[in-house]
């Protein structure tokens, strides 16, 4: 697992927080700077006072100027004054006019006012037509940053808190939503809805949670398939058992001493049939459930086919059985226990449906990376729509075989699953010259 959710979360959270706090810092500084200037209306008021003071100063009426300054002081409760200045050169170079005009007693109304100063600064408004300035301690009502503390709390506490809560909520929903869907799917699955799936509802997500959803879907599909197969198998087995059990009951109920040998023979045959049916069904269920891969030993397919063919010739002596093989065909990581019954069932099935006097041909050839075994009979063949179904449990094209032998439709199903257990595959085709061709592909290694 490449931990995409971890890296995605780190990228979003770490990068997002760094960018957020950088933006927050810049925004705080900009806000503080913007709130550090005197309001435009207050600037105009200060300039208006300075103009009045200059007019009174230029008029030469100091009494009127002092009276006006006293009234302004009482009204605004601040210190006010008008000062003039001359600069006397004591030593060195003569000071120039620009330096003289740049001499200040206080702060300009256009300068920033530090929001953290305890006392209000002295504001200086130079006269335009005289060498003097109007000085006034900035009135409290004009001091900028009245709401700076509130703004600072909003910017540095409330806003980050709200944003982090939103981020935590998004992360929670990003994680909990698929988990809730998994919970709902698990509940539905436990209630018998084996078709429930989760991965499609997660969209384009590609992280640990989507992988978990995919794993759940695979598990649900696998368990649903197994349960469906088990139900079908039990249903088919119960159906198949009814007939031999009925015959067995009849034989037992009608048992007569005079015909004891005949009845015992019938009872023995039916019990053997039932035992074989149950054993094959249990084997098939195990192969379906476990899907084992049996890779234990080397197998020479030529020797194995010789043994199977000899047994088949003895059982079906009235059919011709032809075997075409190379001298040796050794495969690795396989199993006699799986291959022998599989080949035996397929060859026996071909012989069973081949009329007396006809032949069955078994050929073994080597292909790229595998050996190919073809079993060709001269039977009636199978309708195309049944070619895949013949490998299903309890499937029979006809209810009775041409030779009248008993069969409960498990031979080819078992053969396919046994071959799958050694990574081999099998398929059925209708032969061009009539009859059925079964093709088995067995990997060499």
From TrEMBL:
Species of the source: Thalassotalea profundi
Subcellular location: Cell membrane
Protein name, entry field: histidine kinase
Recorded catalytic activity of this chain's protein: ATP + protein L-histidine = ADP + protein N-phospho-L-histidine
Coiled-coil segments on the chain, per record: none
Spans traversing the lipid bilayer: 6-29, 153-172
Primary site of residence: membrane
InterPro entries noted in UniProt: 2C_sensor_his_kinase, HAMP_dom, HATPase_C_sf, HATPase_dom, His_kinase_dom, HisK_dim/P_dom, HisK_dim/P_sf, HK_sensor
PROSITE patterns, sorted: HAMP (PS50885), HIS_KIN (PS50109)
Ranges of residues in domain HAMP: 173-228
Keyword Membrane: yes
Keyword annotations: ATP-binding, Cell membrane, Kinase, Membrane, Nucleotide-binding, Phosphoprotein, Transferase, Transmembrane, Transmembrane helix
Phylogenetic classification of the source organism: Bacteria, Pseudomonadati, Pseudomonadota, Gammaproteobacteria, Alteromonadales
PANTHER family attached to this UniProt entry: SENSOR PROTEIN CREC (PTHR44936), SENSOR PROTEIN RSTB (PTHR44936:SF10)
Domain Histidine kinase: 236-445
UniProt KW Manganese keyword: no
Annotated EC: 2.7.13.3
Membrane topology: Multi-pass membrane protein
CDD domains to which the protein is assigned, alphabetical: HAMP, HisKA
């Amino acid at each position: 697992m490449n931990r995409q959710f971890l890296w995605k979360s780190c990228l979003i959270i770490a990068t997002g927080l760094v960018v957020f706090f950088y933006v927050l810092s810049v925004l705080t500084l900009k806000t503080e700077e913007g709130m550090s200037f005197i309001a435009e209306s207050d600037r105009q008021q200060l300039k208006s006072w300075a103009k009045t003071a200059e007019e009174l100063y230029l008029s030469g009426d100091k009494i009127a100027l002092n009276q006006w300054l006293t009234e302004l002081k009482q009204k605004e409760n601040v210190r006010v004054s008008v000062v003039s200045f001359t600069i006397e050169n004591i030593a060195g170079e003569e000071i120039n006019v620009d330096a003289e005009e740049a001499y200040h007693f206080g702060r300009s109304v256009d300068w920033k006012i530090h929001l953290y100063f305890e006392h209000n600064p002295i504001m200086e408004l130079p006269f335009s037509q005289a060498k003097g300035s109007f000085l006034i301690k900035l009135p409290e009502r004009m001091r900028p940053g009245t709401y700076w503390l509130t703004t600072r709390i909003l910017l540095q506490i409330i806003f980050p808190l709200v944003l982090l809560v939103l981020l935590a909520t998004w992360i929670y929903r990003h994680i909990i939503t698929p988990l809730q869907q998994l919970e709902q799917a698990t509940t539905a699955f436990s209630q018998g809805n084996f078709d429930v799936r989760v991965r499609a509802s997660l969209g384009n997500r590609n992280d640990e949670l989507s992988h978990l959803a995919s794993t759940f879907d695979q598990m649900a599909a696998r368990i649903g398939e197994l349960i469906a197969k088990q139900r079908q198998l039990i249903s088919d087995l119960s159906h198949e058992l009814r007939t031999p059990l009925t015959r067995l009951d009849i034989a037992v109920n009608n048992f007569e001493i005079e015909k004891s040998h005949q009845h015992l023979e019938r009872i023995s045959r039916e019990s053997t049939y039932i035992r074989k049916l149950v054993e094959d069904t249990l084997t098939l269920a195990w192969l379906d459930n476990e899907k084992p891969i049996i890779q234990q030993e080397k197998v020479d397919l030529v020797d194995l086919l010789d043994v199977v063919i000899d047994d088949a010739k003895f059982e079906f002596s009235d059919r011709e059985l032809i075997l075409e093989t190379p001298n040796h065909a050794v495969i690795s990581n396989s199993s006699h226990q799986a291959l022998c019954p599989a080949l035996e069932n397929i060859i026996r099935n071909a012989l069973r449906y081949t009329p007396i006097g006809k032949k069955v041909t078994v050929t073994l050839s080597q292909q790229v990376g595998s050996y190919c075994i073809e079993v060709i009979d001269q039977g009636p063949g199978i309708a195309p729509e049944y070619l895949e179904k013949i490998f299903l449990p309890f499937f029979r094209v006809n209810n009775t075989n041409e030779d009248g032998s008993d069969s409960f439709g498990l031979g080819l199903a078992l053969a396919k699953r046994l071959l799958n257990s050694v990574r081999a595959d099998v398929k059925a085709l209708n032969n061009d010259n009539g009859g059925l061709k079964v093709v088995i592909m067995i990997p060499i290694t």
